[in-house]
Design goal:
350 residues, alpha/beta, three-stranded antiparallel β-sheet, 11 helices, 37% helix, globular
């Protein structure tokens, strides 16, 4: 039985995207591959109008976490780093820093709170090479204010690095004062897993080669040119190009409008059924929502009831895992898919 994925990645893909991955065998030294890579990079830069000029894309073979680790290890020299934590995924950035013995300070805001800019300002006055935060903290769906963060980073002379894993391509991002942003193909861009990426400002890209190299595979400068240094995931890249071809003409702005419509359908219906969101909707990404598990269900039984009807919802992390679940409107979902799930939820609860 085919399933409807209401998860924040991997997400639903179109048939044409899946067929692109199943296309003819292609070697990465073939001139046709150069065309594939070039088009993918250009279309990726066109997702947001602000990145069409002055930004450089680095395509990587691997999951979104690979892109985060590549950004962290390639964009930081010997200085101290400030990590902004307010969820499981921003805490993972701290774990990456520890693995690579990069000195850092972590500001932990708790899982239901926004960034405290007064505390951030106090820390930045101490001097940091870089600040790292998550735009959409997928743990709850909270959308953090990276525009304000970027402004502060400029004031205090720190680089601003952003994990935009589950927001890139749908939520608005002000790139003005950001230095690097990472994400993945299998989230809001509707492709299959296997390709992730980092976008860096051209001015910052020139600096990357001067930063001491910490890794081999994840060293961003290796991926700056037209010829991939290592064997790339060619089928996944072909699918990614097709997914970018299918992006609405207005790019992220148009996809945002579509996601908002679907998110509002879900949120209104679940609130009417008595479910409670983990954080206020006005603080939430348009890509997913975190709700309390309905009374009479554990998360496991709620997940199984949805799965039996062909819908896959998402589990939460840590202290949230028994009380909350997540539903995402990310991916190639029709309004009928959303309505079908809402009808199921009504039947299960009532």
């Amino acid at each position: 039985m085919s399933k409807i994925l209401l998860t924040p990645g991997p997400c639903m893909t179109s048939e044409s995207v899946r067929l692109a991955a199943a296309g003819p065998d292609l070697n990465h030294r073939d001139p046709d591959y150069a065309v594939l890579q070039s088009e993918t990079k250009q279309r990726l830069l066109n997702v947001y109008s602000q990145t069409q000029e002055g930004w450089h894309p680095y395509l990587l073979g691997g999951s979104g976490t690979l892109a985060v680790e590549a950004m962290v290890t390639s964009c930081i020299g010997n200085g101290r780093v400030l990590v902004l934590e307010n969820g499981y995924y921003s805490s993972r950035i701290r774990d990456i820093l520890e693995v690579h013995s990069i000195p850092y300070t972590a500001l932990n805001h708790g899982w239901t709170k926004p960034w405290d800019f007064d505390s951030i300002t106090v820390e930045l006055e101490k001097g940091y090479e870089a600040v790292i935060g998550t735009h959409n903290e997928t743990t709850t769906g909270r959308l953090n204010d990276v525009a304000r963060l970027g402004t502060l980073c400029v004031r205090y002379g720190s680089r601003c690095l952003v994990d935009a894993m589950s927001s890139f391509g749908a939520d608005s991002i002000d790139f003005t004062n950001l230095d690097a942003v990472c994400s993945s193909a299998n989230k809001c861009l509707h492709s299959i897993p296997g390709v992730s990426f980092v976008l860096a400002k051209d001015s910052f890209s020139d600096v990357l080669s001067q930063i001491p190299r910490r890794t081999y595979y994840m060293s961003l400068p290796m991926y700056a040119g037209d010829n991939p240094p290592l064997t790339p995931p060619v089928p996944a890249l072909a699918a990614f190009r097709q997914a970018l071809r299918e992006l609405p003409v207005g790019g992220a702005q148009d996809r945002h409008s579509d996601y908002v419509t679907k998110a509002e359908m879900i949120r209104q219906a679940l609130v009417e059924l008595g479910l409670v969101p983990a954080i206020p909707f006005e603080d939430t990404s348009c890509t997913l929502t975190t709700f309390t598990v309905p009374k009479g269900f554990s998360f496991e039984s709620w997940f199984e009831a949805n799965l039996a009807a062909g819908f896959v919802i998402y589990g939460c992390k840590g202290s949230f895992k028994d009380s909350y679940f997540q539903v995402s409107n990310m991916g190639d979902l029709a309004l009928g898919d959303i309505q079908g799930w809402i009808d199921l939820v009504r039947r299960l609860i009532k």
